[in-house]
Amino acid sequence: MANKQVSREFLFRRLHSLLGVIPVTLFLFIHLGINSFATKGEQAFNDKVGILETIPFLPFIEFVFIFLPLIYHGVYGMYVAYTSGYNANKYSWGRNLMFTLQRTSGVFTFIFVIWHLWTTRFSGDAPSFDMVVQIVTSPVGFWFMIIGTVAAVFHLANGLWGFFIHWGITVGPRAQRVSAYVLMGLFVVLSAVGTSALIAFRDAVA
Questions:
Q1: Which residue ranges does UniProt annotate as crossing the membrane (predicted)?
Q2: Is the pTM value of this prediction over 0.85?
Q3: Is 116 annotated as ligand-binding?
Q4: How many other CB atoms sit within 10 Å of the CB of residue 158?
Q5: Which of the four CATH numbers 3.40.50.300, 3.40.250.10, 1.20.1300.10, 3.40.50.150 does domain 1-204 have?
Q6: Is 31 annotated as a binding residue?
């Protein structure tokens, strides 16, 4: 019975890890990529959103390949954050800090994504430039979007670092150190892309 429970827990964690990398990473890259066109103006952004909306069976694709993986990754991630110990005496201060930030950023990101989808995709209106502008005109909405975006990107970058280790991609200390530098660069670049897009939305009403 104990072995079955361990095997089931291992499977759930592996699935959580895999779904956090493949569909969720793709979703974040596409989302930030489309948002980046806000820096080119309203028409450029709306044109890209319009192209996305013409994908056949889009609601089905979003539900099966994006929303379901997001829900599983988020809900199971909340469970992991609640049940995981913080190993203060086992690892270095830096490792424990990143471990803690990964858990806290995951919880915040999950709340942020639910709010963001509710106020945009499930609002009853088609996504548009003006829709986002209405959100970020409020200082609370703007900073919540900024913090949520940075938290999501950090959770992705730091999660990829752990994913590469757990799946045997970066085995030795040197490979893990190099991947840490590369993924830190990815975090900086994607954070800059997301932040500049939100500033462009906000400045559209200035």
A1: 12-34, 54-76, 97-118, 142-169, 181-201
A2: yes
A3: yes
A4: 20
A5: 1.20.1300.10
A6: yes
